[in-house]
Design goal:
Two copies of one chain form a homodimer. In chain A, helix 1 packs across helix 4. Chain A has 21 helices and 18 strands. An eight-stranded mixed β-sheet of chain A has the order 1-5-6-13-12-11-7-10, with helices on both faces. Chain A is α+β, with helices and mostly antiparallel strands. The longest helix of chain A is centred in the N-terminal third of the chain and has 20 residues, at 24-43. The first copy, chain A, is elongated and about 95 Å long.
């Protein structure tokens, strides 16, 4: 039905908060990134599989991204069968459903990768979106820490494939079982202490934000936002005893000093940093400001072992970390790239063993222009319970997820992604009512593989208006044929790249006059393709 | 927090109806298709732009996919600001919002393309999904039919780029203004007859499903499902007079005969079919069964012109169709590819002028094994009202959308998409507890660009179990190193492609014995990469 807008009352065109449109440069950059990541993952033997955007809400389960607001954090709605369905908030929970549903037909271990949009129904903020892209790899049915070690090595290889130099990233590794062992050792084992355990983990998670004194408050009675009583909100603490706080700080490397002191004091010596000769040269390239808050891997593990020696689960966690270190080091991934780190917690509830995250050591500026580290661009861990929920039998699994949008921002920052606009198409301008002849020229150019288009604005627009359009499209050249040229069977080719250079030259110089002649020239209609091809080559135009 | 599944009560792993998972072959096929479509669109001067999955519901507006159920058909929910947001049901409405929001900074005409998932909250059925992929191109700010003609030519070029031979597809073109003119001529103009007009359009839309007698009922008093009174549901008709029905049937080419008669009777003669010599040869390749229900384009336009001669809007529609025909023919797109067709209606409400659709003339089988044409794989039209809603000024626009999933099914059917499984990675098998050495082999293979993995299942699994896994992964070869080989510093390479061939040979023949020796051989550890590379080349393994 032909339908005209009936009311002049205007609707406001705006996007809901926390969502973003994407232009050509950003799309091309994502494409380039995704291709590189895919290449690494396939080299590691992972094959693609994809699930849709929706799952039954119960299949996503209680593993929601934000436990403060259970059943919030995801977009949910009732479908026409009155069943609750939700948009995926990550790519792991849907993969668990997929594997459970197709369990018998899949090879096991089942190694797969996928990328796509995920959705969070959260308050958006700067750099915090309600739709963002993840790129995941998962190994289901692999019980040993070898699978976790492989994920960490793949994460490192991916960073280097994307152009992030060694020394500018680190894979940080921890183990939920070690954390559990530590918490057990201060009397926080068992289901009844789940809430308190979570509060402790959240306090540890803030180690890179707050000085140690503030962390102590979060582990003890609580903390006022802004650091002073009565100012801002109050965050209730974990209520640990002095002794409990001391053990947690010992675990994370604090021991009561200020955090700055600790990082200085605990800085590994050169020979602790460097395990292989190959890494020697790269170390000098480490940024000066890099906080050395990692213990040296094996020294840290020994220390942790003492802390959790009475806990079975804790010792098991230490063993798994040791296995991962051994495997990584034997494959050439030494302690410069691969680090045990107490502060690596990972937000999601479903992790059961090793957790890992890739941190970029690159510096960027915050809103106030202060240098800050870029931080985490991906992570993952072992989630042995996620597939088991469907199967009623143990199904071990581990997976790694890259935050594509965030990593893309980092790569743009270090100049590893091209942000230049692409050259536009050749524009064939139009004169008079009869445009069939111009359309034919366009078709001829396209058939020769040249990006080309007819000017499709109002055909009464002047040549000036049409050239303005070609400039805005970043076109390398425009084709012009007035009625005189038509009669003679010729066309004019206007070189817009040279034209732009001309504008910056003095008008009476020889160079100007010479270039002016070159910037617009005529040719026979049947030479059009050849002449345009020559021009594109002369100006180095390559469409990506 | 390390967390174990607490209850043995199993959750059922299943996907909500109308959604689908996608495996490696399907993903690779989509990727190949999308690349080819992109290549054509960019050659036509379109640039990529993407919008997110959500829009404010009011921005999608009243242009919902199914007018029978206003505000249904889309997935909507209230966000934390209590505002209604909806998942996009197509890529056109969000593009209209994008253009309106960025109007001043965009070149005009604005030519862009995008592909992505769209969502419909409808009852799913066979081949009818609630999430599917579209690939769209749109030109905004182009007022003339030249832009519509370009879309149709691009549609044709895209089909051929995807491997659909000329003669196996046709671009069908109609114009909502002509339809309006016809409806006006039978007294159905004006806002008060909007409902009746829609009923008439829906009846026309059923022309390829029902015999002409049933269409007559839908245009008149109504029709019982199953064709007999009291059987099935009753669909109320448009209530046209005998005269009105006759005019509609005349317009669509019916004139009261059965549809089969009409298509026979109206079949164009050879010289009407063929406008250019180049198309001559292709005509003979047309499938015999192809229903020739198109009038020859210009003859049809003359006939239509007589029908709507008293209606301004009707005559304007005829003019636009004529312009499109002229442009297409001058660019070499004759009547074999480009057809005026009364039955092309397009479901969406927002179209205001030319509408077009690509139909595949390929045959497939329905559930009962009867041959049916594959039908429409894409379409679009002019939607001059969609951007205007936001701007309060006229913003002409036209766009074309490919149903990627549907087209992919067609391409698979005609063998234009590879559905073979990819070769899997080289599998390094493990023995004993110490796997660091095997991990190192894997790292070495990967570093040489060879897809490889460590067997990550239970390390106590037998060699047989590990080989079964390698077979299931479609691996070209497996690497084996027992303790003896380890001591000698050698590895065994098992050629699984040759191994599969061996299984079909008689065991005592010379050939068998020769190949058996070739199918498993040993080499020094440091020759591993070279020997595997040789094997891959010998067996023609190429990873895509």
């Amino acid at each position: 039905m032909a339908e005209k807008p009936k009311k002049p009352s205007k609707l406001r065109a705006r996007l809901p908060r926390g969502l973003a449109d994407r232009g050509p440069a950003e799309i091309a950059a994502t494409r380039a990134m995704v291709e590189k990541i895919r290449e690494v993952y396939e080299r590691y033997g992972f094959e693609p599989v994809e699930t849709p955007a929706f799952e039954y809400t119960d299949a996503l389960g209680k593993f929601l991204p934000d436990q403060d607001r259970p059943n919030e954090g995801v977009f949910s709605l009732q479908d026409d069968d009155e069943q609750w369905i939700s948009l995926r908030y990550d790519l792991t929970a849907p993969l668990a459903r997929y594997v459970a549903e197709n369990f018998d037909s899949l090879p096991k271990p089942y190694r797969s990768y996928r990328f796509g949009w995920v959705f969070r129904n959260e308050k958006p903020g700067p750099g915090r979106f309600r739709q963002f892209m993840q790129f995941d790899a998962d190994t289901v049915g692999a019980p040993t820490a070898a699978a976790d070690a492989e994920m960490c090595m793949m994460a490192a290889d991916t960073m280097e494939a994307l152009g992030i130099p060694r020394g500018s990233y680190v894979v940080k590794v921890n183990n939920r079982k070690v954390l559990d062992g530590v918490l057990e050792s201060i009397g926080l084992g068992g289901e009844e202490n789940a809430g308190q355990r979570l509060t402790v983990l959240r306090a540890i998670d803030k180690l890179d934000k707050f000085p140690i004194e503030e962390i102590k408050k979060l582990l003890g009675q609580g903390r006022w936002d802004g650091g002073e009583e009565g100012k801002g909100d109050f965050t209730k603490g974990a209520g640990l005893s002095e002794e409990g706080i001391a053990i947690i700080l010992d675990f994370v490397g604090g021991q009561g000093e200020t955090w700055a002191d600790v990082t200085k004091y605990k800085a590994p010596t050169d020979d602790e940093w460097i395990r292989t000769g190959a890494e020697m040269s790269a170390v000098t390239a480490l940024p000066e400001s890099r906080p050395n808050y990692f213990y040296f891997n094996s020294r840290l593990l020994t220390h942790w072992h003492d802390l959790v020696s009475k806990s079975d689960v804790g010792r098991q966690g230490i063993d798994e970390l040791r296995q991962m270190l051994t495997l990584a080091e034997s494959a050439g991934y030494g302690s410069q790239r691969f680090r045990i780190s107490a502060e690596t917690i990972r937000g999601l509830e479903y992790y059961t063993g090793p957790v890992y995250e890739v941190e970029l050591l690159l510096e960027t500026k915050d809103e106030k222009g202060r240098p800050v580290r870029f931080g985490s661009v991906g992570g993952g861990g072992r989630y042995d319970g996620l597939v088991s929920r469907f199967r009623g039998e143990p199904v071990p699994a581990t997976g790694f997820s890259i935050g594509v949008s965030r990593l893309q921002a980092a790569l743009t920052l270090i100049g590893q992604l091209d942000n230049k606009p692409q050259p536009g198409p050749v524009v064939v301008t139009v004169f008079g009512g009869e445009i069939a002849g111009y359309q034919k020229m366009v078709a001829t150019l396209r058939k020769a593989g040249i990006r080309a288009e007819l000017y499709l604005g109002n055909p009464k627009h002047s040549l000036g208006q049409q050239m303005k359009y070609a400039d805005k499209r970043n076109s390398p050249c425009a084709i012009i044929q007035g009625s005189d040229e038509k009669q003679q069977g010729i066309v004019q080719i206007k070189d817009l790249i040279l034209g732009a250079e001309l504008a910056s030259l003095e008008k009476d110089r020889d160079e100007y006059l010479k270039k002016q002649a070159e910037a617009q020239f005529s040719c026979k209609e049947d030479e059009l393709v050849a002449k345009v091809q020559e021009l594109l080559q002369r100006r180095g135009v390559v469409w990506g």
